Amino acid sequence: MSHLSERPEKPVVGVSMPHESAFQHVTGTALYTDDLVQRTKDVLHAYPVQVMKARGRITALRTEPALAVPGVVRVLTGADVPGENDAGMKHDEPLFPDEVMFHGHAVAWVLGETLEAARLGAAAVEVDLEELPSLVSLQDAIAAESYHGARPLMVHGDIDAGFADSAHVLTGEFQFAGQEHFYLETHAALALVDENGQVFIQSSTQHPSETQEIVSHVLGVPAHEITVQCLRMGGGFGGKEMQPHGFAAIAALGAKLTGRPVRFRLNRTQDLTMSGKRHGFHAKWKIGFDADGRIQALDATLVADGGWSLDLSEPVLARALCHIDNTYWIPNARVAGLIAKTNTVSNTAFRGFGGPQGMLVIEDILGRCAPLLGLDPMELRERNFYQPGQGQTTPYGQPITQAERISTVWQQVQDDAGIADRKREIAAFNAAHPHTKRALAITGIKFGISFNLTAFNQGGALVLIYKDGSVLINHGGTEMGQGLHTKMMQVAATTLGIPLHKVRLAPTRTDKVPNTSATAASSGADLNGGAIKNACEQLRGRLLQVAASQLGGNASDVRIVEGVARVLGSDKELAWDDLVRTAYFQRVQLSASGFYRTEGLHWDAKSFRGSPFKYFAHGAAATEVEVDGFTGAYRIRRVDIVHDVGDSLSPMIDIGQVEGGFVQGAGWLTLEDLRWDTGDGPNRGRLLTQAASTYKLPSFSEMPEQFNVTLLENATEEGAVYGSKAVGEPPLMLAFSVREALRQAAAAFGPAGASVDLASPATPEAVYWAIESVRGADAKRDVSEIPAGVTALSNA
Amino acid sequence: MVAARITVNGEEKQISPAAPHTTVLDFLRDRGLTGTKEGCAEGECGACSVLVARPGVNKPTDWVAVNACLVPVASLDGQEVITSEGLATAGEPGTPPALHPVQEEMAVRGGSQCGYCTPGFVCSMAAEYYRPDRCAHDEGSADHAEGDAEHGPNGFDLHSLSGNLCRCTGYRPIRDAAFAVGEPTDEDPLAQRREQAPPAAVATEYSQDDSTFLRKDTLAETLQVLRERPDAVVVAGSTDFGVEVNIRSRRAECVVAIDRLPELRELRVESDYIEIGAALTLTEIERRLDGDVPLLAELFPQFASRLIRNSGTLGGNLGTGSPIGDSPPVLLALEASLVLADADGERVVPLADYFTGYRQSVRRPGELIRAVRVPLPLSPITAFHKIAKRRFDDISSVAVAFALDIEGGVVRKARIGLGGVAATPIRSFATEEALEGKPWSAETVEAAARVLRGEGTPMSDHRASSLYRSAMLGQSLLKLYAQTTEAVSS
């Protein structure tokens, strides 16, 4: 067992416990960024001036009418920017644009004494626009060959030979929708300037260091003049990885120019119309199978809808390509990627970061092809799993080292869920019910952990022990509900050998730990846990020396367990508080900064080859649905999941991540339906689903009626802190099982062996058209009854 | 007139200087009670849920959860509100407060992740915790001893959380918390509060700058105000106007509240009709009818969320005249009439004659809907089919309500109300004709379904395509037929 993964006696990691802020959450006392406004004097409110056209050049911007509104203090425009007018890392995202690039693009911000004054001021700003042609949909962008950024190509083996060896070659297209993050807390920041001109920004951000970096270049000052703090977020899901920076820069700029605190909080409509979302994709594919259904070759082109600027589209696309294999051995592959440039919001990180999109393509292919190959979908999937001991690599060249876990979780979920019996029950039910059908589908996942870009795989921490024995930890990760802080406190208590109540955690700040990576890519616990462990080991090493001097014996024989130091083989004890006080009087340093970098990674973006991931997370889900043949409406009857989190750091937290990720994934694939006005009328480019009343998240009614989540046992991961595995993103992709179950249930309304195209999201309407298409395949039905547009809908 | 005041967590606060359009949510946050959150500002997410003391159905006072983002704070003059901060009991100085039982269950079972929706969930859950008939209802019923998918063994109705969204947990731990809460103790101050009279409605005239919020004691006074101020916006639960204020920045010079007028809050059963006061909340109607009108009973769980039903009224749903309101199709199928009142008196208008165009009706300026009359006897076979993307708390793509009399296998009478297919809710007279006098058979139903499919001019939008909407009209009749015949055969 590696040093990193080994757990000491009576570890605090592995103990099931609620979120460290649960008490504050339930009493309403947990503070979020905008709650601080009530505690700050003389705050100005910032409100955006949004232009409601898909694209156009600004020919005039008149701010005087806004300044005439009572309570308006200032209007911020591009002329006010002392540094660089850019909110991104790719120099393609002007903070104050000259050209409106999407419907709702903010071109100026109004500062008011009250939110009402700022709103009225923003409405009074006059913008003259020379309208320009726009590309709103992904299809339009593909037709116009409007692309930006990298065009990666992943090549593996020889696809021509692969297709030549194939008994069946099938082709298809699939376009699927993106997803709105809909964190319950919208984007918010509060900026203050102190007597030295130092800017302090409270921001709801997953990436405080990058918020700092962008504010610094917008203000034209060095990073050390900017401090960013994130208390906690009311959800992030990737939506606060890149997107908060420009907004925080507006607040900082306003504070710098007025000398007063400036706050902004987007309302829900502003958040929906101004911030990026999960990328929708278009995929075109050709796949070859041998006579037994084994994949011989895959040729695919994936186009991501990047929106108006690049943002994180390049790494999102890279991760999509790196996950098109999912759990399947594809000996010959050629997969090309493109990023469409459209006049919509700039799409960004969202839980899974392209991985779900790549995996959805292969799962959709297998779901559609299984009936055509005459195979049960479960059988087809199983036949194509990576196999242990074959020296197989992913299409980008990373060796598969835990292939056995793919079939282990697959088999265990079948046993746990009683699949064999339930398949028989479902067949009997379907035979007896002409208008209602049930189906059960299992899908598995393999998700690569680490940032594709090797440099980001580092973390930092600062651990302080006060002379009364209490411990304060700081680390570079942010808390967005995923329970990172809980796990980090458990890691610190475990490494130091003290009870959890001795450890407190301070909010994430850039002046405590510098140059941090985003809390993203599921890496928060791996990177920051490694760093905290490192800092605590330094401190423990010093304290063991002190303890040895007090207890007699060698430092290497001292153990600190549950807050008591003992020498092996001796009854003498030294309590933690006494040990710490003694260390202080011996002038031993009681603070340490910790650092961690993930070893063994390499990635060449140009050749699209390497081993970018430290390990893979695995899981499998079995989902049973029931579909109403009259309407296409459906219910999720039962879900069983077996998921691999290594040895869990905090089981209740991890189960929460698995369940929450699954339901969020199910939302993406079934219910959440982003629609834009693609017509040529005056509202072209407008997001039609720009409120909670029109963009529907899963509610209680979408929760599986039975929901059983099991964490894979004896799953120690050698390459991560205390043997754990990352958990934030992977479970989202377990929801493929919902989509595949819906596909199979729709198929059950038709003759055996029908292949079903299912739109994504698979709304009740989409399922209804899928049912109608298979009913149409039945010779007894009049095919003309199927409404036109079915094909268009399933690919829309 | 006494200055407008509100009691929050036992502490009385002056509403001034809040602007009259200020919501309870913004008022609380401005006063430092930041536990109440804004997630959507349109009554969809429930992050702003708070408890309000209202006249009770089974006890003198009920604790009712409402969306603080929709309710103007001036409308709660003289009322009592509890927030998530107020549910916990203060401990000795220096010690943390004792958690309320619902807070305790939510905390220890992992019911919070990011925590932003949690205070709202806690308040909605507390309201269900204090519902007087929660456990009593289920004790007598063996079926419910173990609960079902939507009811816990403790009688907890998950529909009480249908207006609360969580983006993190996937809901399972929240359900577990809800199903684990026990009974309030006798010492519980909020349980005790239910035994006392509710806060009385208080006549209010609250003005700031050029804007006024008005509440009168009687219908007569209110109708006089409406005669003098025909521009006044009339609100009951504010579930529609609150959205206008927040999302479309609508500001009104004069808002008149009618939700506590006693004349609009009666429910009477006469020999040939039931009269339902227009300002009774949907929850009050649901609990007081207790299934006596099965078609309404089928409607209520599908009508928005519990949070909205706790404020929204039939008068409001009909008064806004939305073509996609859920009550009109049902009331059309029930052949309901409206009692309209103005300063000169009353008139009764059949609902089928009420709507004249998109959000327009025969209701004159200065006229109020006082009550809805549902004629008796009721048709024995009724059904409400709401087609939407989401099962709880969504807006209809189309809605179809049926009320049928079938005797000896022949359809004697058919009444069908439709929503979402035209500029107004409509009766499907052609389909009714295609059914009446015919045998209730597959042949009749298929022919009638073809007629029904051709009703109205459904449009394509973000909710559904016109093709799907039309298809669902016909499908709803086929489904009803399948359900009635399957019920007979089984």
List its salient traits.
heterodimer; A: 796 residues; alpha+beta; Aldehyde Oxidoreductase, domain 4; eight-stranded mixed sheet; five-stranded mixed sheet; 20 helices; 29% helix; disordered C terminus; B: 490 residues; Ubiquitin-like (UB roll); Uridine Diphospho-n-acetylenolpyruvylglucosamine Reductase, domain 2; Uridine Diphospho-n-acetylenolpyruvylglucosamine Reductase, domain 3; 4 domains; five-stranded antiparallel sheet; globular
Topology:
The complex is a heterodimer of chains A (796) and B (490).
Chain A: H1 22-27, E1 44-51, E2 56-62, H2 64-67, E3 72-76, E4 99-100, E5 105-112, H3 115-124, E6 126-131, H4 138-143, E7 153-156, H5 159-164, E8 168-176, E9 188-193, E10 199-203, H6 208-219, E11 226-230, H7 244-258, E12 262-265, H8 268-274, E13 281-289, E14 295-307, H9 313-321, E15 333-341, H10 355-373, H11 377-383, H12 403-416, H13 419-432, E16 436-449, E17 458-465, E18 471-475, H14 484-496, E19 503-505, E20 508-509, H15 524-551, E21 558-561, E22 564-567, E23 573-575, H16 576-585, E24 591-597, E25 602-604, E26 609-611, E27 615-628, E28 634-643, H17 651-671, E29 706-711, H18 736-747, H19 764-777, H20 790-794
Parallel strand pairs in A: 1-12, 10-11, 14-15, 18-19, 28-29
Antiparallel strand pairs in A: 1-5, 2-4, 2-6, 3-5, 7-15, 8-13, 9-10, 9-12, 11-20, 13-14, 16-27, 17-18, 17-24, 21-22, 22-23, 25-26, 27-28
Chain B: E1 5-8, E2 11-14, H1 24-30, E3 49-55, E4 61-67, E5 80-82, H2 84-87, H3 101-108, H4 118-129, H5 134-139, H6 172-180, H7 189-193, E6 204-208, E7 211-215, H8 219-228, E8 233-235, H9 241-247, E9 254-257, E10 267-269, E11 273-277, H10 282-289, H11 294-299, H12 306-309, H13 314-319, H14 327-333, E12 337-342, E13 345-350, E14 355-357, E15 360-361, E16 368-375, E17 381-387, E18 398-407, E19 410-419, E20 426-427, H15 429-435, H16 442-453, H17 466-489
Parallel strand pairs in B: 1-5, 7-9, 8-9
Antiparallel strand pairs in B: 1-2, 3-4, 3-5, 6-7, 10-11, 11-16, 12-13, 12-16, 14-15, 17-18, 18-19, 19-20
Helix pairs in contact in B: 3-6, 15-16, 16-17
Family (chain A): Belongs to the xanthine dehydrogenase family.
Domain Aldehyde oxidase/xanthine dehydrogenase a/b hammerhead (chain A): 27-133
Protein name (chain A): Xanthine dehydrogenase large subunit
